[in-house]
Amino acid sequence: MEGGGSVSWMKYGPVVSLFVVILALWFRSPQNEDLDDRLDTVLSSLLRAEQKVGMSNVARPKVAVGFGGCVDLIVDGVSLLNKIGLPPTDQPLHHDYIENTEQLAQSFAYFFAPGAAAERFMLNDTLFSELVEASRDLPGNRWSVGGNAPVMAGRMATEGCDVLLGGSFSPDFTDVLSQHITGNILDEPDIHLILEYPSGASWGHYTSRRANRYIIHSDDHNPYLDSMEEFAEKLGDFKPDLLVVGGLQMMDNFPFQSGERDALFSRLADLLSSSSPQIGVHFEMASFVEESIMEDLLHYVIPHADSLGMNEQELPNLLSLLKGSNITVLSDPNPRVATVLDQMREVYRILNQRYKDGKPLTRLHVHTLAFQAMIVTRGSQWKNTMSATAKASLTANRHVCGSNDIDPSKARLIMDDSFSVSRQEGSQRIPLQETRPVSCWDEEDYEICVAPVLVCTEVYQTAGGGDNISAAGLVLQI
């Protein structure tokens, strides 16, 4: 989350980024000239695409965002495991939830090596408290606003929206969150532990393929969507242009009493179905591993959503379930563009066939390390898809590098020089044009846009990346 100066940064950030491009041109080394040229051109072109749609001359869009809130304690994951004396395991294994240190080692190793994001509930309160205490005096640790809803709310307020937050945050962060956010202050919010690691990090014989994070929590408040009732009461007077739902992964593998989760989902479905048809509804996916909760999402939540956001792990997970297969816990963390686009087309088609008598899915945004991809139905309420895709791409770098000023010397392109629009034989290949890096084209009843990401090479934080990216992309489309 950005600090108190975030609004001014957002006002001048693009100008500063263009200035950095000019400095990079001046100080480049001869051997890197071609690469520098390419990065500089892509950056300046993405900035122009983002700036084609201004927020300064329009009324601030009103966005309602739920649910939950916490405090994130961010540490270097390997340093923490070393500090508590947890040796690398010889058995990387998937666990739905964590009960002891052996399962923690196995689960961390399972996701650490491929560099895949994961989030797990820890049933063992004592072990979780010990990990938090060990993290408190770990060098380089940081406290941050946490929870999907507060993070998305913070980004949207920074980008020019007025936000109703269906969640809570610590009084320690009232000066960080924008004055344009209305929410509840909770004196002792739950702590979520964020184990970050850079690309190339080593833990025993494991080496991470990309920077990412492993999240653990023992949260017994957010799974109950405590803020939902008050949030629903305020929606009528707030009159939002967009309703955003996230944070439901807190309910994954939580030990509810029989019938509790169904009742919560039923209340959420009532809230979504009672909102005005003119209000867009966006659902942000997350790391779900329990098959029954995915079925609940398909029954109670997704039929009411016009828009879905997810990463490269969550997309094949959802598609697998839609096609009648089991959940895919771990997928390729660096998929090709053609693979992602084919999966997006299938999700778009299946959901619109399945819920053809309900609310159609008109927007699908997938954020990966290398690129952003959007499918938007032509003639739908969502506008400015090209600029929104560019903004999502730039936000990925801004968040992960921890600065609104994008420095091309701390970035690289890992998307291919050209990509196929599908894995089908004979599919069109689209070259990456540095002067027009966002590629958009029409198919069937929708438009597809793909933008490369200037991948940050000096990582500040990966946690909250998806929430920031999705929120920024939505802002230009309301």
Secondary structure layout plus pairing:
Layout: H1 6-27, H2 33-51, E1 62-66, E2 70-76, H3 77-83, E3 97-98, H4 101-112, E4 118-122, H5 125-136, E5 142-146, H6 148-158, E6 162-169, E7 181-185, E8 191-197, E9 202-203, E10 206-207, E11 212-217, H7 228-238, E12 242-245, H8 260-274, E13 280-284, H9 291-301, E14 307-311, H10 314-322, H11 337-354, E15 363-367, E16 371-377, H12 385-401, E17 411-413, E18 418-420, E19 429-431, E20 439-443, E21 446-452, E22 454-456, H13 465-475
Parallel strand pairs: 1-6, 1-12, 2-8, 3-4, 4-11, 6-7, 12-13, 13-14, 14-15
Antiparallel strand pairs: 2-5, 8-11, 9-10, 15-16, 16-21, 17-22, 18-19, 20-21
Helix pairs in contact: 1-2, 2-12, 6-13, 8-9, 10-11, 12-13
Q: In brief, what are we looking at here?
A:
With 478 residues, the chain is an alpha/beta fold. Helix content is 37%, strand content 22%.
First-to-last CA distance: 22 Å
- Portion of residues in helices? 25-40%
Low-confidence stretches: 1-9
Oligomer: single chain
What's the gyration radius in Å? 21 Å
**Overall shape:** globular
Quantity of strands, as a count: 22
Mean pLDDT score: 91
What does this structure look like?
- This is ADP-dependent glucokinase 2.
- It comes from Seriola lalandi dorsalis.
- GO terms for molecular function: ADP-specific glucokinase activity; metal ion binding.
- Keywords: Cytoplasm, Glycolysis, Kinase, Magnesium, Metal-binding, Signal, Transferase.
- Residues 1-32 form the signal peptide.
- This protein is of the alpha/beta class and 478 residues long.
- 37% of the residues lie in helices and 22% in strands.
- The chain is built from 13 helices and 22 strands.
- The strands form 5 sheets. It has a 10-stranded mixed beta sheet, sandwiched between helices. A 6-stranded mixed beta sheet has the order 3-4-11-8-2-5.
- Helix 1 packs antiparallel against helix 2, helix 2 crosses helix 12 and helix 10 packs across helix 11 (337-354).
- The two termini are 22 Å apart.
- Mean pLDDT is 91; it is low at 1-9.
